[in-house]
Amino acid sequence: MKHLNSFFFGLLFLAIEICLPRFAVAQNNEAHATLLAWEQRIRNFMLDRSHDYGGTNYNRGLFREHINEMSAEHEIDLMTYRYTLIDDYSWIKADHAYRVSMGSLNATNFAIENWIKDDFNFNKRNKLSINGYQTQNIRADRFLFYLGYDHKFAGKNHIGVQHTLSDEKADLDANFYYRYGNFTNGMMEFDVTLMDWASNIIEGLADNSRNKYNQRYDVTHKYFKWPKLFSLKLISPKSKHLKAELVAGLQTKSRKKVDNHPDTLQYIDQEWAHYAGALVEYSNEYFTAGLTFRRTFSKLKRDPIRTSNYDLKFGNWQIENSAGFYAATRIHKFRLEQWIWYEYNIDRLQGEKVPGDLLARRFKRIPFHYHEKRLKIKSRLLYDPVHSGFKTGLEFHADYIYPQDKAASNGVKSFTFRQAYPIVRNRSDRLTYTIGYRFNEKFYLLAGFSYDLDKDKQSGIGLPRATGTPTWFDGGFGRLSISW
Fold it and tell me: N or C of the chain: less Cβ packing under 10 Å?
């Protein structure tokens, strides 16, 4: 019952959005959403492994949703600071654009994302593309570029190649694709990515050059089975007010040997992963409404080599499923949006022994099987002129977590997990005020700060309990978006 007031607050926005279009004047300015920016973030995690938290050979798998250094409000922070799927649509459509979002994660750290893209057309058939992504949000610390070439054949056929540019030599990926159509009018695209194609060569050089002056090469690895990423994008044209998207990717099973030379620790890592997303949207001149589904899956299996001193044998599964609904409408200079997501997430670590950074009660290493249901709400009421002018608004954000399993000894849900990873807080909600200026349709600045509705009264460590002094300020942020 304690969440009902906040939940009804979100539903009030939804009711307004459903009823208000009856009185709205047609704007001929339809809003659309897309999953392609979400997919790009997932691909960055899969391709740029060296700059994910823990690095290439981290023992907690690929997506690393639950880690010690992450605050209990990490998810609601990202939901507050980042662009929405509707904002992403404008980004994907632009050929030349830059955008940044940044906001406070804790007393000393910001979450920041810089995205930049530029297309240079040699002629009607040949194009060079440059896409850059800089991310710092505790789960990742990366500065990654994609350099690509696209050739258009007769009709709507395209073939192309992209390559990642990074400061880690063993983390290079080559992507080849075929595309029919385009994002605006409908398209299908098939990609094959050769992941870490230079890894064995580079790691071999690092292994052979190991000496007292090259301590950074203490840990090396060698692939016995190289991973590949197969992906698909299907974007439908709009037909009778409806459009749909489907994105999916499969990272094939990889197998590699990892050597920790000073301690003669050797083990075999096997890993595979996939993601999938779907969107169905109805839009007209009065309102837009849609449904989304997103899923990520990764699995890591680690086995010691018999002749090695390494004695940890374990496996890690991370699964996230999210089903969402959104609605948006514009009435003259006012814009309303309602977003609701329902999630079912699993984080499982199993084995006779687990890594030493997972220390539970009395320093005993124990596995865990954490799974949760999660409800997220984002409601927006914005004064946002289409062409230019002052913009401001109010937003409501909520993240409600329902851990599912209980410890038999004390009845505390996910007690084992809470002890090792103190990020499970059952409630986070805030009211956000934004203010900014739109210079024109392609350029705006925005800043905001949040009022803490939950007052940070609950600790996520061990037994849920009230702790500390109630807070009021819940972080500030800024965004800038420009295209040309």
Answer: N
Tally Cβ neighbours within 10 Å of residue 49: 25
- Provide the token pair at 103: 């906001």
Answer whether residue 394 shows pLDDT above 50. yes
What whole-number distance in Å separates Cα of residue 310 and Cα of residue 263?
Answer: 9
The answer to whether 422 and 68 have CB atoms below 8 angstroms apart is: yes
- Residue that is written with structure tokens 């605050």 in the block: 71
Candidate from 187-196, 200-209, 458-467 with smallest mean pLDDT: 458-467
Tell me, what DSSP letter sits at residue 363?
G
- Find the distance separating the first CA and the last CA of the chain, reported in whole Å: 49
Strand partners, 331: 334
AA identity, residue 238: K
CB atoms within 10 A of CB 52: 21
Distance (Å, rounded) from C-alpha 63 to C-alpha 138? 12
Q: Are 181 and 195 in contact (CB under 8 A)?
A: no
Q: What whole-number distance in Å separates Cα of residue 376 and Cα of residue 342?
A: 7
Tell me the per-residue pLDDT of 339-350, one tens digit each, with 9 for 90 and over: 999 999 999 888
Taking a C-beta distance cutoff of 8 angstroms, is the pair 300, 57 a contact? no
Instruction: Give me the pLDDT at residue 218, please.
Output: 78
Cβ-contact 117, 97 below 8 angstroms: yes
Is residue 219 within 8 Å of 228, Cβ to Cβ? no
Torsion sign over Cα 465, 369, 40, 236: negative
Looking at the DSSP assignment, which residues form a beta bridge with residue 205? none
C-alpha closest to that of 433 among 445, 451, 453: 451
Nearest to 391 by CA among 484, 481, 288, 283: 481
Looking at the DSSP bridge assignments, the partners of residue 413 are: 406
What is the Cα–Cα distance from 385 to 61, expressed in whole angstroms?
44
pTM of the complete model: 0.90
Taking phi over 0 as left and psi of -120 to 50 as alpha, with beta for the rest, 307 belongs to: alpha
Which residues are CB-neighbours of 386 under 8 A, at least 6 positions away?
Answer: 27, 29, 330, 333, 441
% of residues, the chain, pLDDT over 90: 61
Neighbouring C-beta atoms of residue 176, cutoff 10 Å: 13
Q: Which amino acid is at 286?
A: Y
Query: What domains appear along the chain, each with residue ranges and CATH number?
Result: 4-483 (2.40.170)
Backbone angles phi, psi at 11, to 5 degrees: -65, -30
Sign of the dihedral defined by the CA atoms of residues 225, 227, 228, 233, in that order: positive
User: How many alpha carbons fall within 13 Å on the CB side of residue 333?
Assistant: 11
Q: Amino acid identity of 83? A: Y
List, in sequence order, every residue forming a beta bridge with 245; answer none if it has no partner.
235, 279
Q: What DSSP designation does 326 have?
A: E
